[in-house]
Amino acid sequence: MDPLEHASIPGLIYLALSGEPTLTGLAALIIGAVFPDLDVLAEEHRSYLHSLLPFLPALLLGLHLGGPFLLFALGWGSHLFLDFFTGVVPVVYPLSRRGWGLSITVAGPRDFRIEIKLIERYPERRHDYRLEIGGSAALALLTTLTAIIRLH
Ligand SMILES: [Zn+2]
């Protein structure tokens, strides 16, 4: 999942569900939502900031402090939740590199079936990549337009 999707999905949920969304709140949520991908600077993507070990204390601190701190932690949590469906999340990195995720496959239309599998493996090592972000850019544009409408 690319950073535009990570930013847009929780952003849209915040804009839809918050009674009085604020730009500060939206910014805190989005920064938290893309924050774990700073792992690309580490030796492997999906490592330290994709682990529950730093996330859970940050969530507890966010629950204690509230406001933008809580929204930052919720954004971070949304990133881990979304990554769980697009690969594996190494829940106790660096104690273990082993990660877990959920693979959902839909096949059809003949012999229609939905396969749901828990996957367990090590995250892939960092590598250069090229993303096709057309759909993500559309989602980000929709989020921006929704923010303009909701934050005026
Ligand atoms: Zn990630």
Alpha-beta classification: mainly alpha
Q: Assembly state here?
A: single chain
Domain unit count? 1
- Could you tell me the mean pLDDT? 93
User: What's the Cα radius of gyration?
Assistant: 17 Å
Distinct bound molecules:
zinc ion
Helix content: 40-55%
State the distance separating the first and last CA atoms: 30 Å
Strand order of the largest sheet: 1-2
Q: How many DSSP-defined strands?
A: 2
Q: State the order of secondary-structure elements, H for helix, E for strand.
A: HHHHEEH
Per the principal axes of the C-alpha atoms, what is the gross shape?
globular
Give the strand content: 5-15%
Which residues sit in consecutive blocks of at least 5 with pLDDT less than 50? none
Q: Quick one: biggest sheet?
A: 2 strands, antiparallel
Q: Figure out the total of helices.
A: 5
What is the strand and helix layout of this fold?
Layout: H1 3-17, H2 23-34, H3 52-65, H4 67-84, E1 99-107, E2 113-121, H5 134-150
Label this structure with key terms:
two-stranded antiparallel sheet, binds zinc ion, mainly alpha, 152 residues
Question: Would you write up a description of this structure?
Answer:
The chain is mainly alpha-helical. 50% of the residues lie in helices and 12% in strands. The chain has one domain. β1 and β2 form a beta hairpin. α1 packs parallel to α5 and α2 runs parallel beside α4. The longest helix has 18 residues. The chain is globular, with a radius of gyration of 17 Å. The model has no long low-confidence stretch (mean pLDDT 93). Zinc ion binds next to α4.
